[in-house]
Every structure is written in structure tokens, then in C-alpha cells.
Amino acid sequence: MEWTTKFAQEHIYIFSFMVTLIAIGLLYICNFCIFKSDNDLSYDLNRILAYLIPLIFVFVVCLFSGNISNIKFHKGGIGTGVLFGWLIIADGVYGFVSSYISFDKSSLSFPSMQKTIFFTLVMLLIGILEEVLCRGVILNNMLNKWGHTKTGIIKSVILSSLIFGLGHLVNLFWQPTLIIGTVTQVIYTFLIGILFASIYLRCKNIWAVVILHAIFDWLCMVSGIYHTASSSVVPVDNSIVSMLITSMLYIPFALLGFFLLRKIFVEDMSQSVTNTKSI
Description:
Elements: H1 2-10, H2 12-34, H3 45-64, H4 78-84, H5 86-102, H6 113-146, H7 150-166, H8 179-203, H9 206-221, H10 240-249, H11 251-278
Helix pairs in contact: 1-2, 1-6, 2-3, 2-6, 3-6, 4-8, 4-9, 5-9, 6-7, 6-9, 7-8, 8-9, 8-10, 8-11
């Protein structure tokens, strides 16, 4: 365990890349091998199992990299974290409403309770997997390497969020024609990742951002299980103008994140002054 922690701190870029690549690889291998349905909107026990395997890997990495204490469940800070994430929830509600409005109402169907429960569990597993990986493991290891100074925190938040965003490039395997749409997703998830990281550092509870992440994904994607999509429909890629507009709309998420970090900077400065006086 000690050599793993040492390697993670001394080779943070290699460690972050390897852990992310293995987790994503396991996820997609499991989806191909376990998930048998051709309909991407189907949610069942197989899909849940496909997410559990890479999640177990990430928890093992947490254990051996010395971050297991950072992901233990406790109630403190969850409510505060959810309140800090009001912009994320608002964006999820907007995504839900806009998706519903854009759908052809004749193709809507009410899903079974089992399908809704499985869908909700998958959204929760996605939130746990991505937050424990990007915030619980990568962000904390970067902070251990670069310290809790203002520069160290900003550098760790930006780089861990960048990894979070770049991880979504793997969606090109599923929809290789949606190049601009995937790049757009990378950009806005990077900006949202800054807010997720800032909320985590403010409330000091990984489960606050897990819940926020799950709520956001649920709101943005739940309309899919109410919609019978035709497999013959070819998805249309975004335009560059649309990508630029979407990217600009998500800049406030990053700005809110940096605003939330200001109190952390003040607390660290106060702590440094106190330690200096005690010496």
C-alpha cells in the first residue's frame, strides 16, 4: 500500500492516466460483454453489473492509494453541498424540460417501475464511479502532491476536472459521427467538473457531489426511458456555433466553482498564520 501511495504522488500524471484508462476500459468491456441488448436506452440488471465491476476497481485503488478515508459515508456536508450545487440541479431541470418538449409526443410511453428503478440505480452508479475516481482519487492525490496552497488547489482542481472532461472522449466509440457533439461534452463536463471539485472541497464530503452528479444525470437522461427511439434514426452532429454557445453557457459553472474556493483559500491562509504563531 505504501509503494502505491508513493507512486501516485511521485508520478501523478501517469497514475491519473492509468487509473482513468483502466476504469473506462473495464466499463466498456463490461458493457460489451455483459450488456446484451442492442437498445442503448434499455436499463436492466446487466447494465448495473457492467458499472459495478469498474467501480470495485476504483474502490480498490482508493484503498491502496491511501484515499479510502476520503470516500467514507457521513452525513455532514451533504445538505450544504447540494445547496452549493443549485446551478447544476437547475441545468438538469432545464435539460429535462427541453428534452420533453423536443420529443414527438406520439412516441412517448410510460416505462415499468422496474425499468425506472434500474435506470435510477445506473445513474447513481455513474455518479459514484466518476466522482470517486475524479475527485476521491485523482483530485486528492494531486492535492497530496502539490499541497493545499492556493496554487496547489487551483492546479489540482483544473487538472482533475480536465481529466474528468477528457474521459468523455470515449463516447466516440459509441457514436463516432458525433465528433463536435463529443468535443462539446468534453468542454462542458470540464467546466462542470471545476464546480464539482470546488463543492467537494468546500463541504468535505464526496457523497454530496455523488448525489449532485446522480441527480443531474437522472434529470438529463430520464426522458430517454419514456421515449421509444427508432434505431433507423441517424444522430445529427452539433455545429461549431452550437459548440461555442454551449461552452460559453457553462463558463458560469466554473466561475461559481472558483468563487466557492475563495473561502478555502482564506481558511488555509488563516491556518498557516496560526501554525506560524505557534512555532
